Amino acid sequence: MNKNSIVIGVDIGGTNTVAGKIASDGTCVQKINFRTDVDDSAAFIEALKLTIQQLVESSSGTLAGIGMAAPAVNAREGVIEHSANLRWGKLPIVELIKRHFAVPVTIINDSNAAALGEMAFGSAKGLKHFMTVTLGTGLGVGIVVNRKLMEGAFGSAGELGHMILETNGRACGCSRNGCVETYVSATGLCRTVFELLSYSMEQSILRGVAYEDLTANRVYDAAMQNDRLAMQAFTRTGHYLGRMLANTVAAFDPEAIILTGGLMRAEELLMRPTIESFKQNALSFQQKRLRILRSNFTDGEGALLGAGSMVQHWDAINEMVQTEM
Amino acid sequence: MNKNSIVIGVDIGGTNTVAGKIASDGTCVQKINFRTDVDDSAAFIEALKLTIQQLVESSSGTLAGIGMAAPAVNAREGVIEHSANLRWGKLPIVELIKRHFAVPVTIINDSNAAALGEMAFGSAKGLKHFMTVTLGTGLGVGIVVNRKLMEGAFGSAGELGHMILETNGRACGCSRNGCVETYVSATGLCRTVFELLSYSMEQSILRGVAYEDLTANRVYDAAMQNDRLAMQAFTRTGHYLGRMLANTVAAFDPEAIILTGGLMRAEELLMRPTIESFKQNALSFQQKRLRILRSNFTDGEGALLGAGSMVQHWDAINEMVQTEM
C-alpha cells in the first residue's frame, strides 16, 4: 500500500457506529462516532456514506479501501443478516457502500475483526495460534489457527458464547439455557448482581437499582467504591470466564487468549479471578503455557483496525480469509 | 507411491497393538494383533519389530514406510511420553524403529490418526471441516480444519474429552471433575450404570456385577437382552454426547462429526439419543446442517489406516501436518 494511502475502518455496533481513518502504520488518525439507526437501514447507509466522505475529504491521502465490521455478518456475501440488535433484515451493505466509493469494500464479523486487529497491530503480532474474546453486551470469539481466521464450514465457528457452561442454567436469547454469555458479558455481570442480591444479605449500593437500569458501568462504579457485592459479581464473572477459557484451551490449545471489549474496563477486578479460575480448571499441562492477555487497544479500536487491515494487507489477508471458506 | 509398494500401519493401544499391511488403494490386506507389553518398552519394541518383519516378508511388494499411532504422542519429536496406560516413560519410538527399517517412519496421536484415516479412505473423503470422536476407554478427538489437522500451538488441541461438561461432576483421571470422558466413553458408560443402579429400583442383570468386572461389552450384551437399565445407560451416554457435540459445533462449525471407537458397537442404542440430544442442545441454525455419521471402518481400522496414510501420501500429508506445527 502506498504510504500516502488511507483506509477507512468501520465498526458497526447495536448502539454506536465508529468510522476511523487508518494510516499505513496502523494508527487511527481520526475517528467519527454516530448513533446507529437500528430501525432504518437506508438512513444508516446514508449516515455511514456521509461519515466516510467527511473522513476522506479531510485527508491528503488517497482512499485505498473500506473495511467494515458488524455483528451477524455473512462475509462471503457481504451482507448483514438476522442480527438481534440491528433490525434491518438482510442488508447487502458491501454493495450499497461500493456504489459511492470506487475502492475495495469488505465486511467481516466483529469478533473476527477484533482478532485480525490484534494480529495486524496488537498483542497477537507474531503469534500463530490465538483467540480474542470480546466481552461486550454478549461474548464474541475470534479464532486464529496458524495465522488464519477459523471460520468453520458454514462461517459460524467461534460461537463460544453459546457453549453451554451450566446445565439447566440461565435462559439465553438463543432460546437455550446455560450459555456462556448469560454469565460472561456485560449482561451476564448484571444478572450475577441480581443473583447475589437475591442470595446474600450483603448491603450494597446496587440494592437501589432496578434491573432495567443496571449497567456494567454502574456495577464497575460501585466496585470502585468498594461495594463488596459489586466486587463479588466481578469475581464470579471471572470464575465463569476462567472455566470457559479452560474448556476452550482444551479444544484449541492456543498460545494466547486476548481479552477485549467494554467489560475489560474492570481490569484486575476481572483478570485476577479469571486467571485464578483458569488455573483451577485447566488441564495441568496446559495451565502454564497459555498466556491470558488484555488488549492494548484503547476504546475497543481493535475491531475497527482489524476491519481496516482487511484492506491494508488486502492481498495477504484476503487470501487468509479465502482459504478458510 | 508405486503400485507394488506396501505400507505398514500400526495402532498401539493400552491393551493390544495392531499392525497391518496396507495396499496402495487403502485396503488393509493383512493384520497381526499382539498384546502390548505396557511395562517393558524394550520387549514391546522387539515384538513390534518382529511383527513388522513378518508382515513385510509375507509380501511381494516393497516397503514404502511405517506409520504408527499411539496415545500421548509428541509427533514432532517422534516419541510417546507420559501416557496413562503405557508405563514406558519417554520412548523415542520413531528412532528405535528406524534402526531396523530403512524407510520413512512416523508417529501420530491416535485420535488424529483416526481423523486422517477417515479423510484418506473413509467417511470424510472430500470434506474440508470435520471431526472424529473416538469412544474407547477414554474419548479422543481429531479435528480437521480446511483439510489440515489442527494440532494447536503446543500439539495438544482436541483434548475435548477434558472439557468440563458438569460443574462439580465425576472425578477424572486428570485430577479435575466433570470432564466429558467421565460420562462419554466405555468407562463413562459403566459409571453411568452404577449411578443408575444406585438411583433407580429397576431390576437389572447388572445388579449381579461388581464395578471392576463391568465392561462396556457387558452393558451392551445386557441391553441386547432388553435389560432396561442397560438401555437407559446408553440413552444417558448419548444425551451427554449430544450436549458435548452441540458445544463442539458452536466452537468449530464443522460439516460432519464422525463417531468411531469400541463403544460405537452399540450403534442405534447410542446414535439415536445422541442425535436427539444434539438437536435439543445445538444452536438452531447449526442443528440442521451438521451431519453426525458413524465410521464405516471395521474393527477400528481407521487409526491404523490413518497412520499408514501418513506414509502413503507422504508428501501431501506431511506438508499438511508440518504447516500446523
List its traits.
homodimer, 325 residues, alpha/beta, Nucleotidyltransferase, domain 5, 5-stranded mixed sheet, 12 strands, 20% strand, globular
Oligomer: homodimer
- Tally of extended strands of chain A? 12
Rg of chain A, Cα atoms, Å: 20 Å
Any low-confidence stretches of chain A, pLDDT <50, length ≥5? 314-325
Order of helices and strands of chain A: EEEHEEEHEHEEEHHHEHHEHH
Instruction: Work out the strand percent of chain A.
Output: 15-25%
- The number of helices of chain A is 10
Shape of chain A: globular
* Average predicted confidence as pLDDT of chain A: 91
Task: Give an account of the 3D structure.
The structure is a homodimer of 325-residue chains. The first copy, chain A, starts with a strand and ends with a helix. In chain A, 38% of the residues lie in helices and 20% in strands. Chain A is built from ten helices and twelve strands. In chain A, helix 6 (228-252) crosses helix 7. Chain A has 325 residues and is α/β, with parallel strands linked by helices. Chain A folds into two domains: 5-117 and 300-323, Nucleotidyltransferase, domain 5; 126-294, 2-Layer Sandwich (Nucleotidyltransferase, domain 5).
Summarize the entry for a quick read.
The first copy, chain A, is α/β, with parallel strands linked by helices and 325 residues long. In chain A, 38% of the residues lie in helices and 20% in strands. In chain A, the strands form 3 sheets. In chain A, strands 3-2-1-4-7 form a 5-stranded mixed β-sheet, with helices on both faces. In chain A, strands 10-9-8-11-12 form a 5-stranded mixed β-sheet.
